[in-house]
Amino acid sequence: MLLYADFVPEENTWAHIQAAQSVLQTFGLPFRYYVDNLRVFRFVQKRDSFWRTHHLGTDDVDPQWKQVLQEFKVKIIYALSPQAKGKVERPYRWLQDRIVRTCALEKLISMEDARAVLREEVHRYNYQQVHSTTGEVPAIRFANAKKAGNSLFRPFALPKPYKSAKDVFCLRTIRTVNGYRRISLDRHSIEVPKVDVREDVELRLLPDLAKNVLEVRIWFQGNLVHSVNLPLNEFRRYA
């Protein structure tokens, strides 16, 4: 069954975090997430060269997307080749072929028009088409597996101490409170109340492309101490 599919202007970290949020909140927490070695999913370091010596190795840094999944205790495994992801690649090729042909025949050129075709094809695949391997409709097979207790999906629940999905499905960074009880984020100075100077605080960042807003939620010792909205277009790395 296809649990998520969408078109986005750019394949980046935030798009994949939103995709993971949709899957986890709709279907529950999976036992494992099977992905390739895209830089969004995994930090892979190349070998040293004559001109450059690396100080970090592969998996010495956890990308933002990986931190989200780890917070839910979802294990991540990596496919080392496209062939290893055969169950993913086959429906992808099928969708690509049908969507491209449909858009060409109907002269669709906008992303929204193509997205409507994608949704129609995903619905057909999940709820109407008998799968060639299993001989069952994917959505019915998926529902029967959950009903019979043959699914490794767990009920969705936010990890403690968080009470809002905003504080988990987000981008993260650390800042140190200065002598004026403020922190700096891309030339923006933000007041941090109730936190002593020289303490580290964790920033949970949520870009809202539609509203052009970056919501900054500041956490300290398991508590949300402050929240502020800033213009998103002033933060290139998050826009």
How would you characterize the overall build of this protein?
The protein is built from five helices and eight strands, in the order αβαβαααββββββ. It has 239 residues and is α+β, with helices and mostly antiparallel strands. It folds into two domains: 135 residues, Ribonuclease H-like superfamily/Ribonuclease H (Nucleotidyltransferase, domain 5, 2-Layer Sandwich), CATH 3.30.420.10; 70 residues, no CATH class. The strands form three sheets. It has a four-stranded antiparallel sheet with strand order 3-6-7-8, with no helix packed on it. It has a two-stranded parallel ribbon with strand order 1-2. A hairpin with a 2-residue loop joins strand 4 and strand 5. Helix 1 runs parallel beside helix 2 and helix 3 crosses helix 4.
Put the structure in a nutshell.
The protein is of the alpha+beta class.
Q: Could you outline the blueprint of secondary structure elements for this entry?
A:
Elements: H1 13-27, E1 32-35, H2 64-71, E2 75-78, H3 86-106, H4 111-127, H5 138-147, E3 171-176, E4 182-185, E5 188-191, E6 200-208, E7 213-220, E8 223-231
Helix pairs in contact: 1-2, 3-4
